[in-house]
Design goal:
131 residues; Pnp Oxidase, Chain A; 38% helix; Nitroreductase; Split_barrel_FMN-bd
Length: 131
């Protein structure tokens, strides 16, 4: 792995140790973040990851801030399912589908949409929930 890969890994580890505990508490309290419960593809352990999701018909839109190689996303794809907790309500996710950037951005409110556009975010996924 090249220098960029090591730098990215270090950044993700730093964020995981500093920012994630705070966002995880906020997600568990039902404030500002959703919680994604997923099973590790190698460990079999259950993990909880805080995310900002936008509700849409049929599920929730997730913006992959750190790309599709993050563990939570890879675990969900490998399992084909997870549970999303939004404001204390659990939703069973039964599939993940890629979304075009404009469709993904459109799911978010005006302020978030502007920020996503300015940051040139292009990786969006639909977390499809069970009917």
């Amino acid at each position: 792995m090249g220098r960029d890969g090591r730098t990215r890994r270090r950044l993700l580890r730093l964020l995981g140790r500093t920012l994630n505990p705070w966002t995880l508490r906020a997600a568990r309290a039902g404030r500002a973040f959703a919680l994604v419960r997923h099973v590790g593809r190698r460990s079999g352990r259950t993990y909880e990851t805080p995310l900002v999701l936008a509700p849409v018909a049929g599920g929730f839109v997730a913006e992959l801030t750190y790309g599709p190689r993050v563990d939570w996303y890879r675990n969900v794809v490998a399992a084909g399912r997870c549970v999303v907790v939004v404001r204390g309500v659990e939703h069973a996710v039964v599939g993940v589908e890629p979304l075009a950037a404009d469709v993904g951005r459109a799911a978010f409110g005006p302020a978030a949409r502007l920020v996503l556009r300015l940051l040139r975010r292009r990786e969006f996924r639909l977390l499809r929930v069970a009917a």
